[in-house]
Design goal:
The protein is built from four helices and five strands; from the N terminus they run E-E-E-H-E-H-E-H-H. It is an alpha+beta fold. It has one domain: Double Stranded RNA Binding Domain (2-Layer Sandwich). A hairpin with a 2-residue loop joins strand 1 and strand 2.
Length: 140
């Protein structure tokens, strides 16, 4: 089965690896015995579903979530069932990739306001006065 990320990009579910572990937090014996936390792993560098341009964008924009080996990790432990956490992890994975691949809106050129220019000049004058007071007085 393929996961639809954005128009023109489908990722085969076979490229995703899922790991399970015990969730943290309260829950008594249930939380200590069942592995409900799900971690989705996606190898960005070796994926055959994405092209080089998309790969570079993902590596740049999701750098904090990708380890040295190029593996993207998405975890979920929100729910008490493994299947629900798996669905949440997949949904979050789709959101992350779609956001990373979305084009940034073009920047509109703007000018500093009169007030901001005045604040900048006033701050420079204040800084100048402060430094002037640090100087040794001139002997006349």
């Amino acid at each position: 089965m393929a996961i639809d990320i954005c128009p023109g990009l489908l990722i085969d579910e076979g490229e995703l690896t899922f790991q399970t572990s015990t969730s943290s937090g309260p829950g008594g014996q249930h939380v200590n015995r069942t592995e409900t936390k799900v971690t989705l792993l996606f190898d960005v560098r070796r994926s055959g579903s994405i092209d080089d341009d998309q790969r570079q964008r993902i590596l740049d924009r999701l750098a904090t979530r990708i380890n040295r080996e190029g593996i993207l990790r998405v975890s979920s432990q929100k729910h008490r069932s493994q299947s629900a956490n798996r669905e949440v992890a997949i949904r979050r994975f789709v959101e992350l990739l779609a956001d990373a691949l979305r084009d940034a809106p073009p920047r509109k050129a703007s000018r500093p306001t009169r007030a901001s220019r005045k604040r900048r000049v006033d701050a420079k004058k204040q800084r100048s006065r402060t430094k002037e007071l640090r100087r040794k007085p001139r002997e006349e």
